[in-house]
Amino acid sequence: MRAHLIGPPLTRALAPSLLEALIQGPQDPTWLTFHLGRRRTESSRADVLGRARGWAAAFRARGVRPGDAILMVLPNGLEFVTAFFGAQLCGAVPVPVVWPAGLYTDPAKALEATAWQRSVVEPTAIACTTDFESVFPNAVTCPIDADSTPDSRPTADDPAFLQFTSGTEGSPRAIVITHRAAMHSATAMAQCLDLGPKDVGVSWLPLFHDMGLVGSLLTSLVSGFPLHVMTPPEFLLHPEHWLRTLSETKATITVAPNFAYDYAKRRIRSTESVDLRPLRFALNGSEAVQRATIESFEERFATCGLAAGTIRPVYGLAEATLGVAFELDRSPDHTVDGRLVPSVGQPLAGMEVSVRDTSLAELADLEEGEIWVRGPSVASEHLVGPGQRVAALKDGWLRTGDRGLKRDGRLHVTGREKDLIIRGGRKYPPYELERVAAQVANTSPSGALAVGSFDPKLGTEALIIVVECPEGRRDEVRLALPGRMVAELGIRPDRVELVDPGSLPRTSSGKLRRSAWLEETRV
Fold first, then answer.
1. Residue 448 contacts by C-beta under 8 Å, 6 or more apart in sequence?
2. Is residue 510 domain-resident?
3. Is 265 within 8 Å of 297 (Cβ atoms)?
4. CA-to-CA dists, residue 25 to 28, 95, 519, angstroms
5. Domain-located, residue 469
6. Model confidence over 353-391: pLDDT tens digits?
7. Which CB contacts under 8 angstroms, 24+ apart, belong to 295-298?
8. Band (441; pLDDT cuts 50, 70, 90)
9. Could you list the residue range(s) of the whole structural domain that residue 490 is in?
10. Main-chain dihedrals φ then ψ at residue 512, nearest 5 degrees
11. 249 has which bridge partners?
12. Cβ contacts of residue 181 below 8 Å, gap of 6+?
């Protein structure tokens, strides 16, 4: 069949805005618990709303007017959440950006880190910590006593926030997310997973990223379940804290990119007293989902009560606010060029997914093409420069740039259009090449990069593998890598480069920037 995939109707009620969801939601004693090492800070919705009104007063004192942009340069914590809603309370538009971790010793570098985002949105104020107060002339660092100005009550079609894309293909774009889109995306995900007040969430994902902001915070907001918020550095330094927090809180839902499951599996040594039996869903998205990662993680922590099938592949993108399709069952993988591609499931409520060829015609089942999406949470425009708004849709559809195929009513994501390596007429998505290279070097899947660069001597693209590897193992890896890739994938790299750990170009969310590596090295 050549019909596109259509999600079910949305049956859960939508509040008109995120603010109304905050104000009218269940007033339980604790909504958010922020974890910083062993220290915990609990906040109810009333606490969040009261402190948000203080931020709103501080923004007004700085000269912020309705419709102005406020840059959010804040780490995971209560200040991020309250400043986010404080901006909305005074009619402004919050713009979360990368928290410049590691810049404490040189705050001036924060100017460089946020230069592009500041030029695009031209913020009237910047909500930040006192570390950066001296470098941002329009900084607001803390709330003040709330004034008597009435709260702003935005409509469903007003901007709720601007979400910058990760920038895998160049400079990040600011996606305009309305309250209607944000409410629909969070509610559709909650409906799909049947989330409610009895659930408990745990997330270490950065709140400036759509997966942490919408997938965790806003989904918790509309569902009414308590959320435990950790920080990304704590996960990276102590991944066992993630599992222990899941265990201690009896969490039923968590979410992370594929690399995190692989990283935790390799790094965690002790699982004593860790109980993962209450965990209903561990969502896996934001990057290519690897079946091998899912199976090895579930096998590794089965002794902790983790049930097979708990990790669910999902698909989404910032331009759709977040969620597009979720896998609720263990559907069969599909084999594409000898590799297994997991299903990411069926479209969420109100969402539609089409797979098209280069002539824009709808493809039949099992035919690979570009993924297009449509629905109430898909943004219609984005900013690419100061005052430069660009339409994002074609006849109501968003071209994602992702490749995939349909099978039995489900979507399989096979790669990115621009990341494909074409060698000798055969197409190679980079993910499997990187997986094998990372295994040889015993590094994370995001520690290996595969790109193609046209070589006139070969008459086709040369395959280049770049792997992060310590000096002491480089001879061993350089010798083993070509044979391993031939044995598993039937292709030999034309060039292997071994680089220092942490040196590959990545986006703010940790995704590899393959095209950036090519540009930087001028291959």
1. 433, 434, 435, 437, 438, 441, 465, 466, 467, 468
2. yes
3. yes
4. 9, 24, 49
5. yes
6. 999 998 889 999 999 999 999 999 999 888 776 666 777
7. 296/262, 296/265, 297/261, 297/262, 297/264, 297/265
8. confident
9. 420-521
10. -70, 140
11. none
12. 160, 321, 376, 377, 378, 379
Dihedral sign, Cα of residue 498, residue 500, residue 502, residue 506: negative
d(CA 490, CA 480): 15
Q: Can you tell me the distance from the alpha carbon of 387 to that of 2, in angstroms, rounded to the nearest whole number?
A: 40
The torsion angle over the Cα atoms of residues 492, 494, 499 and 501, rounded to 10 degrees, is -30
Please report which helix (H) or strand (E) contains residue 130, including its range: none
* Structure confidence by residue, pLDDT tens digits, 51-97: 999 999 999 999 999 999 999 999 999 999 999 999 999 999 999 99
Spatial distance between the Cα atoms of 361 and 206, rounded to a whole number of angstroms: 38
Bridge partner residues of 404 (DSSP): 369, 413
> Which candidate, 14, 444, 443, 38, places its Cα nearest to that of 186?
14
Give the chain's radius of gyration (CA, Å). Answer: 23
pLDDT at 103: 45
**Is 436 part of a structural domain of the chain?**
yes
Helices (H) and strands (E) in the chain, counts: 15, 29
In a domain, 44, yes or no: no
Tokens of 227: 């959320």
- Asked if 262 contacts 234 with a C-beta cutoff of 8 angstroms, the reply is no
- Cross-strand bridge partners of residue 126: 71, 139
CB 323 within 8 A of CB 286: no
Q: What are phi and psi of 218, to 5 degrees?
A: -75, -30
Locate 273 and state its tokens. Answer: 């007293």
Distance CA 132, CA 111 (A): 9
CA 118 – CA 212 distance, rounded (Å): 22
Q: Tell me the CATH number at 432.
A: 3.30.300.30
The residue among 307, 260, 256, 310 whose CA lies nearest residue 284 is 256
Please check whether residue 253 is in contact with residue 193, taking contact to mean a CB–CB distance below 8 angstroms.
yes
The distance of Cα 188 from the centroid of its chain, to the nearest Å, equals 17
Pairwise CA distance, residues 435 & 439, whole Å: 6
Q: DSSP assignment of 12-58, as one string?
A: S---SSHHHHHHHS---S-SEEEEETTEEEEE-HHHHHHHHHHHHHH
Domain count, the chain: 1
Q: How far apart are CA 98 and CA 4, in angstroms?
A: 36
Pick from 147, 136, 176: nearest CA to 159: 176
